[in-house]
Amino acid sequence: MKYQGINLENVKLSNRSSILLLLNNNGAMSRKDIAETVGLTAASVTLICSELMEEGIIVELGEAAEEKRAGRKKILVDINPEYRNVLCIAVESDTTYIAVTDMKGNMLCSCSLPTDKHTKPEQFFRNVTDECQRLFWKNNIVREKLLGAAVTIPGSVDRKRGISLNTYSIWTESIPVADLIKKDIGLQVVVENNLKAYAQTEVYFGLGRTVSNLFILKWGPGVGASIIIDGKIYQGSNKMAGEIGHMTAVKDGRSCNCGRKGCLEAYVSTKAIADDVQAELDRTDENADKLERDENIEKIIDNKIDMLAFNLKNSISILDSKNVVLIGYMFEIPGYMERFIKAYKEYDPLVSDDFFVKTDLRVNREHTEGLAVFLNEAFLTA
Fold first, then answer.
1. What is the pLDDT of residues 284-331, one digit of tens each?
2. Mean pLDDT over all residues of the chain?
3. What is the reported pTM?
4. CB 359, CB 206: distance < 8 Å
5. What gap in Å lies between CA 54 and CA 59, rounded to an integer?
6. 55: phi > 0 → left, psi -120 to 50 → alpha, else beta; which?
7. What values do phi and psi take at 143, rounded to 5?
8. To 5 degrees, how large is the angle CA 87–CA 92–CA 97?
9. Nearest to 378 by CA among 34, 148, 158, 177
């Protein structure tokens, strides 16, 4: 094969991304420290930083606070949070959240609307873009200041083409999400699975900055997971890695939204739990002993927690992750996280106390995980 040589433009872009990723992870640094960390010459770093400052992507912050020493003072540079804004649209099974953030994840404004499963997807996303336009107008968000948009959505996604292939619990058909959004608001649009988007957020803004192998478990209306290996999100050959909710928990069991039978999600999702609790209430007489009925309901919850812990243990045995990050509505219920960890330790009594981590990322509450997806697409892929 004929040698094609090195593409200098690609090398330059990679070097820019390396510097931006370093600043994102470490915060403000001097050019000298950047050069030593990324392995570039001081001259190269100075040139790249000058270009990034001219574009407004980074800014100088002044002299670094350090002990008195001879020679030139270190001048710190950092990512400019006000460079541009990013539109984040998070489609969840019940509610769709819309937010505008700056470059460091600070939310500037937000709104939400119900995720209408009975409306055709095309009409639903038109309603979403109408809400975006109203949000821009109410908060003086200038279109020219918007760098682009990221849409996070459950289920399988073709990120390259911006298509939601199957959201399971919302719609079953393929939806050209990026085209629908771009047509109405004229922005570059990136589409990603919501759990993989959250994992990207952990990589850029959370535990993933210091821990390279993580398993992220989300328990709520559905059950999902994302896998981080060597600091990268593992996708799998069909982009479906981490679908713990669709592992077979019961042979020939309940029908699942995905079209299969016996999936874990069909037993431990919030809807499945509510249905089983209601069945227990219907089964027992109103005049039956209340304590006995409450105990039976707690047994149902314990069984669900045990099923989830059992399936997670099997996954972790294969992946050998450093930590498991727990997110989602069910882990927010008082006592449920502790009950889950206790159930897990029944299968692995040797697990360390710091193995499970409850995230403190505000993105989990503000639904702005799309920012990390967009930054990954636009700047930070080295």
1. 766 667 777 888 889 999 999 999 999 999 999 998 899 999 988 899
2. 87
3. 0.80
4. yes
5. 9
6. alpha
7. -55, -40
8. 35
9. 148
